[in-house]
Amino acid sequence: MLEIKNLHARVAEEGTEILRGVDLTVKDGEIAAIMGPNGSGKSTLSYILAGREDYEVTEGDILYNGESILEMDPAERAASGIFLAFQYPLEIPGVATMTFLKTALNAQRKARGEDELTTPEFMRRVKSSAADLQINPDMLKRPLNVGFSGGEKKRAEILQMALLEPKLCVMDETDSGLDIDALKIVADGVNALRSAERSFLVITHYQRLLDYIVPDTVHVLYKGRIIKTGDKDLALKLENEGYSQIIDEAA
């Protein structure tokens, strides 16, 4: 699904190097967790996967289903099946959530050469997915994320993910700002999307998210490199012992 080879990247304007040789493989159907201290490059990795233009790849490659995506713009990556759930979803005043969802879904279908959904079919899909995520239908009439609580914003993103049906879901600290009830709802939404054809890259600081979205692999990112890889028990070890020992071992 995803293969990252010796990836080096920097902030385009400043020239500050953030990623310093990331190597990572995510298989079809795998949930891979990325953990690490603040400033390790976790969010930068997610932005680069999505094609954010203010970061520059200086070395290495990113292969998605065997093909390099470095020359693809964000829209092309999205149409190919790459989805990024933001740590802090943006507010878009004046654009109703329902309008945004329909426009995004039909734009991707058109890019893939598929027919656009009719309004009745779109409404059926939205109502079904929104009910699963305990989203009040009135929320979908409001401008996207404007006045939403942290939990509502994250549920709205998982709703987007459910409707767009991406193949690679990159989740940048989706648990940030969620209380335990909202966390469970979001995790249930993610788990409902698990399949042999869909992979997840879950970026988080804390073990608590991984209690609900159980990873197949856990990778520790530090100073722009993966310094340790293990199974779900590695996340528990990090929760109990912190990063110091692993960082010392990698030094």
What would your notes on this structure say?
The protein is of the alpha/beta class and 251 residues long. It has a single domain, classed as Rossmann fold (3-Layer(aba) Sandwich), CATH 3.40.50.300. The protein is built from nine helices and twelve strands. A hairpin with a 2-residue loop joins β11 and β12. α4 (119-132) crosses α5. The longest helix is centred in the middle third of the chain and has 15 residues, at 97-111. 37% of the residues are buried. This is Fe-S cluster assembly ATPase SufC. Keywords: ATP-binding, Nucleotide-binding.
Short summary:
With 251 residues, the chain is of the alpha/beta class. It has helices at residues 42-50, 74-80, 97-111, 119-132, 150-164, 180-192, 207-212, 232-241, 244-250; strands at residues 2-11, 17-26, 31-35, 55-64, 67-68, 82-85, 92-96, 143-144, 168-172, 199-203, 217-222, 225-230. It comes from Fulvimarina endophytica.
Question: What's the helix and strand layout?
Answer:
Layout: E1 2-11, E2 17-26, E3 31-35, H1 42-50, E4 55-64, E5 67-68, H2 74-80, E6 82-85, E7 92-96, H3 97-111, H4 119-132, E8 143-144, H5 150-164, E9 168-172, H6 180-192, E10 199-203, H7 207-212, E11 217-222, E12 225-230, H8 232-241, H9 244-250
Parallel strand pairs: 3-10, 3-11, 6-9, 9-10
Antiparallel strand pairs: 1-2, 1-4, 4-5, 7-8, 11-12
Helix pairs in contact: 4-5, 5-6
